[in-house]
Amino acid sequence: MLLPINDALTQILAHAENINQYESISIEDALGRTLGEDQISSINVPPADNSAMDGYVISTSEASPDHRTFAVSQIIAAGSIPNPLELNTAARIFTGAEIPENADAVIMQEQCEVDGDKVILPSDIKVGQNIRPKGQDIKAGDTILKKGHCLQPQDIGLLASIGIATISVYRQLKVAILSTGDELVEPGLPLTGGKIYNSNRYLLKSFLKKLHIEVMDIGVVEDTLTETKFSLKKAADADCIISTGGVSVGDEDHVKQAVTELGALDLWRIALKPGKPLAFGNIKNTPFFGLPGNPVSTFLTFLLFVRPFLLILQGQNYQPPLSQMLTADFHTKANPKRQEYLRVKQNAEKLAAFSNQSSGVLSSVTQADGLAVIPIGASIAPGDQVQYLPFSQLF
Q1: What single DSSP character describes residue 75?
Q2: Torsion of the alpha carbons at 219, 225, 231 and 237, rounded to the nearest 10
Q3: 179: part of which helix (H) or strand (E)?
């Protein structure tokens, strides 16, 4: 009996525990890494009240409709320390410059009239106008980023804005990958009869590099039980093992038996199309994923099962991808046994499915925008609402 997809994911993620090991790195090297501890600001941002624009700063208590002309007593540039504002004067001030003591409003220069060394201000001036108060963005003691957060460019800018130069992150994962199949040939070599190029190796390496994971590349394994076991033992030094191919029921598919002999196989064969022969278990307590050999099946099972598992190992706070309901511009027959994931292209609020949904048609993945999820036993006609998973939510 095929295991339902949600049950399979629940079982797999139940085995996912973060590595709980950390290292200190520069924020310059932190893109894509996972925070190992909360980041707390020791300063206010901005550190003092400052001007939101170029203009003139005054004390509103001294201004009135009958008193709008002020001598300019100082010029305050960003980065300088101002003197207290003299009585009955204004100060020329520039964007980002600190507000001087005794002042409480900035009037933008376009609303002012300059008369020699004096400035004539408008009559409608309000306390606090055009002033960015101290701590408006961040207050000292605020937690700006939490442990488990995957750092994006804006996060690194935020860390820099409060003076943090080095941070604690989860150490980099190491994931071993191996391919099975005597038919596989590396790109760049001549392709002879009965052979195919090894696309899965490069697909997986790219996925892992995108997750900032170190790749331990075992290479292509000869289609024998002995060689499969030897390679899997070697791979067990990593934090996780991913193999492609060899998990079906053919005479040359040795992965399932090798995993069973070296460790344990927790699940095999799920109610998924494409990707039914997904295997999960462990080798010497190292988590193991056996992905199907067809490239679209490798692509899909990595995104649906392996990626969430690895994110948790990295220490991230994994959240399921967000989907939306869109209108189908295609039809499908009901599949009574497996939930299907169709490669689709979004056109406004409609989804067009690629005519060839074979698990070997990798070109459809590069042309698609996402996946339409078709539940077990559901048939779809044009105009029906279907669940849509955009690739932007999956990687």
Answers
A1: E
A2: 140
A3: strand 174-180
Q: Where would I find the H helices in 122-224?
A: 153-161, 199-210
Asked if 241 contacts 215 with a C-beta cutoff of 8 angstroms, the reply is no
- Is 94:77 a contact under the CB 8 Å cutoff? yes
CB atoms near residue 108 (< 10 Å): 15
With tokens 């689709």, the residue in question is 344
The runs of H, that is alpha helices, within 263-352 are 295-301, 307-313
Averages of pLDDT over runs of 10 residues in the chain (395 residues) are 95 96 98 97 97 98 94 98 97 98 98 96 95 97 97 97 98 96 91 93 97 96 92 97 80 82 94 95 96 95 98 94 97 96 95 95 96 97 98 94
Q: How far apart are CA 158 and CA 221, in angstroms?
A: 46
**pLDDT tens sequence across 234-284:** 999 999 999 998 776 555 578 989 999 999 999 999 999 999 999 999 999
Q: Please list the residues that pair with 280 across neighbouring strands.
A: 267, 289
